[in-house]
Design a protein that fits this description.
The protein is α+β, with helices and mostly antiparallel strands and 341 residues long. The chain is built from ten helices and twelve strands. The strands form three sheets. Strands 1, 2, 3, 4, 5, 6, 11 and 12 form an eight-stranded mixed beta sheet that branches.
Length: 341
C-alpha cells in the first residue's frame, strides 16, 4: 500500500461488512443531482431541446455523463463550443466512474450551438435560456442508485440504512477527494514548501513539464501551470485529510452532531483536539498562507460531524437508493456498509 492510500484511510464506526463490489459498470453507481427546489436531474438520456426565442445570457442544460469527471467534461464542452472554460458553470463535482446527471450553465452561446456537441460519454438535455449562472454549491444534494455485486448479506442493507438515518455517519471527506497523489502534492506545498518535490509529482501534466523544461529552477511557475480550479482542489485535499483526522478523534470522544472547523489561515484554533491534530502534523493555521502563491492561500470553513441518509428505498435485494445533502460522500456510507472494522 502506498503512502497516499494509508493517509486516505479512516476509521469505520459501523463496519457492517456485507462485502461485495460496485462500479463494475457505470450503471452500478448512479448520481442524480437534487436541485434547491427539490427537483431531481434524471440520468436518463431522453433528448429535450427547449427552443426559446428570447435569448438570454446563459444556456442551462442537464449534463449526463459517464467516465468523465465534471471539471474535465465541462472543459471539453467549452473547447467544443470555442469558449473559455470559465464560461461553463456547475454546482458540484460528480464521480468519474459512474453515470451522473447535473445542471450546468454556459455563457454566451445559443441553444442551437449545443447541437454541435457530440462527445462520447457526454449527453446534454433539458436545455433552456436563463439569466443566472450556476455556481459551486447551488444544489441541495444528490440521489444515489447503487447496485452491489457479490455481497454476502444483501438483506442487511435496509437494516444499515435505517440505523444510519437515525444515528448518522461520520462525515469524512471520501477517497475521491484525494485523487492519486493530490495529498502528497498539497503536503509538499503547504507543509514542506518544497516546490521542487511538488513539480516532480506533477510531471505527468504536460503544461507543468513544458514549463520546467523551459526553466529548470522555476518550480513555482511550473506549479502555477495547473488549472487554478484543479490546483485549488489539490491544495484542499490537505485540509480534507486534517479534517478526517480531527473528526475521527472527536467522534471517539463522543458521538454527536456538531459543527467542526476545516482549518485554514483564518481559523481560530480553540478546540484542544484540533490543536493536537495540527501539532502532530507539525503545522499551524498560518501554514495555509501560501506565500509563494498568495492567491492560492486557503481560507477555513465549517463542516458537520455527521450526515444522515434520507429517502432510502430498497429496489431489489442488492440494489437500493438514498439521498444525501451536498458535500457528503456516498462512498463513505458504502465503506461503512460493505467493509469490516
Amino acid at each position: 500500500m502506498c503512502e497516499t492510500d494509508i493517509l486516505m484511510m479512516y476509521k469505520l464506526f459501523y463496519g457492517f461488512g456485507i462485502g461485495g463490489e460496485i462500479k463494475e459498470s457505470s450503471l452500478d453507481f448512479v448520481v442524480e443531482e437534487i436541485l434547491k427546489d427539490s427537483g431531481i436531474c434524471s440520468a436518463d438520456k431522453k433528448s429535450n431541446f427547449e427552443i426559446d426565442l428570447e435569448k438570454k445570457e446563459f444556456v442551462h442544460a442537464t449534463l449526463v455523463k459517464e467516465n468523465w469527471n465534471t471539471n474535465t467534461a465541462c472543459m471539453k464542452i467549452a473547447y467544443t463550443l470555442g469558449i473559455d472554460k470559465r464560461d461553463v458553470g456547475y454546482s458540484g463535482n460528480k464521480d468519474k466512474n459512474a453515470l451522473t446527471s447535473q445542471r450546468i450553465s454556459i455563457k454566451g452561446v445559443k441553444i442551437e450551438d449545443l447541437k454541435k456537441i457530440n462527445i462520447d460519454g457526454i449527453f446534454l438535455k433539458d436545455i433552456s435560456y436563463s439569466n443566472e449562472k450556476i455556481y459551486l454549491g447551488n444544489h441541495f444534494g444528490n440521489r444515489f442508485i447503487i447496485s452491489i455485486k457479490n455481497c454476502g448479506d444483501g438483506e442487511r442493507i435496509a437494516e444499515f440504512l435505517e440505523i444510519a438515518s437515525k444515528k448518522g455517519i461520520a462525515n469524512y471527506f471520501g477517497g475521491q477527494r484525494f485523487g492519486k497523489k493530490n495529498l502528497e502534492v498539497a503536503r509538499e506545498i503547504i507543509k514542506n514548501q518544497n516546490y521542487e518535490r511538488a513539480v516532480m509529482l506533477l510531471l505527468d501534466n504536460t503544461a507543468v513539464k513544458e514549463q520546467i523544461e523551459k526553466n529548470k529552477k522555476d518550480f513555482v511557475s511550473a506549479v502555477k501551470k495547473i488549472n487554478r480550479r484543479n490546483l485549488n482542489l489539490i491544495l484542499c485535499s490537505y485540509q480534507s485529510y486534517l479534517f478526517n483526522k480531527y473528526l475521527e478523534k472527536k467522534l471517539e470522544i463522543e458521538w454527536k452532531q456538531e459543527e467542526l472547523d476545516v482549518v485554514g489561515y483564518d481559523t481560530q484554533v480553540k478546540d484542544k483536539t484540533l490543536a493536537l491534530v495540527l501539532k502532530e502534523e507539525g503545522i499551524d493555521e498560518n501554514s495555509f498562507i501560501i506565500r509563494k502563491m498568495p492567491e492560492m492561500s486557503l481560507i477555513g470553513g465549517k463542516r458537520m460531524a455527521l450526515f444522515f441518509p434520507f429517502d432510502f428505498k430498497i429496489i431489489d435485494k442488492t440494489k437500493f437508493s438514498f439521498s444525501l445533502v451536498k458535500s457528503c460522500y456516498a462512498t463513505v456510507l458504502l465503506d461503512e456498509l460493505m467493509k469490516k472494522k
